[in-house]
Amino acid sequence: MDWVRGKEIGHGGFATVHLAAPAGTCPSGLPPLMAVKSCDAALSSSLRHERRVLRELGECPRIVRCFGDSLTAERGGGEELYNVLLEYAAGGSLADSMKSRGKPLSEPEMRRHARSILEGLEFVHSKGFVHCDVKLQNILVFPDGGDEVKIADFGLAKRAGERLSKGGKRGGVEWRGTPMYMAPESVNCNEYEPPSDVWALGCAVVEMATGRPAWGSRAESNAYALMIRIGVGDEIPEIPEGLSEQGKDFLMKCFAKNPKKRWTAHMLLKHPFLALDRVNNDEEVVRDCGADEFADSSPRCHFDFPDWVSSQLSGTSRESGSGSLSPSSEVDSDQSFVTEHAALEVSVGSSSATDRIGELASQVRPNWEHSEDWVTVR
Description:
ATP binds at residue 37. The chain is of the alpha+beta class. The chain has helices at 45-57, 94-101, 107-126, 184-189, 194-210, 223-231, 245-254, 265-268, 353-360; strands at residues 3-11, 16-22, 34-40, 66-74, 79-87, 129-130, 139-142, 148-151, 158-159, 276-278, 284-286, 322-325, 344-347.
């Protein structure tokens, strides 16, 4: 594939990023503008690894696309570079975007971005990989798609279940990723599995909400002191006070110290915090996460419940015409409508449904002619 290198737009510890445009001989289907990540071919193991991971993952709307790789001779042939052609994000990283605006994100913006990142992570985890470096610098913004965000930089990604080798002459562990976003199990046990990506996502959401790193700005100056805070004791990043109750609970699910108790990306996508959608003006509505399952059987009126079964309370639950139904109450058949941690106050009037309906009967005929009092309902 032929392409033309443009101006530099970024650089990291081992690679430089430039704009790139397809040459006239390049096959169709490529965008008119791309980003090319390049490094010295002799030092390209990490970039080649990223290319392999992206190839195995395949395409996902929440992951930056890869268009291929190539070797090029630069500076008169004296330097050989390895290049990976990627989708260009005109908005830069989410960290850059927040820095330029100079203030934290609104809660609807946080929800939208958190949902997009989780959709990407759910895909990555379903493919058997762990990103290992989720942070705002690796979340890219695409303004043309309405500030859509996508996950980038898979240079540190690994296979789930793959144990990292201990390195160094002293047998030290191989820390990978950014200390500010590391999970307790990564610090303590050198463990990088899908739950560690979820912890990092929680840190990213805190940063979206406050404009500051989850562990505070001073934590950047001493990585080892930060590792002790993360790995020892019960301390977690501070939950922003201004966040809604749903948002606070969402973060608590991300910051469970025990990775086995931490919610997965799939579970978090169904959390009430992400079920709040921003609609016209500043109105907030709640979206039923499971609405699609019941769309065809949604009742049109109060009689349209084909699966409704009336259950009678046992005689022990009645007392002077009313009673309290506790989790130990009995109901007919195997159907129980009492949850483990709730008690339902019920009122029991007549002894049968026929008697109760009879009490509703009246000798006065209803007047159906006042149409202005009717309301059309679905």
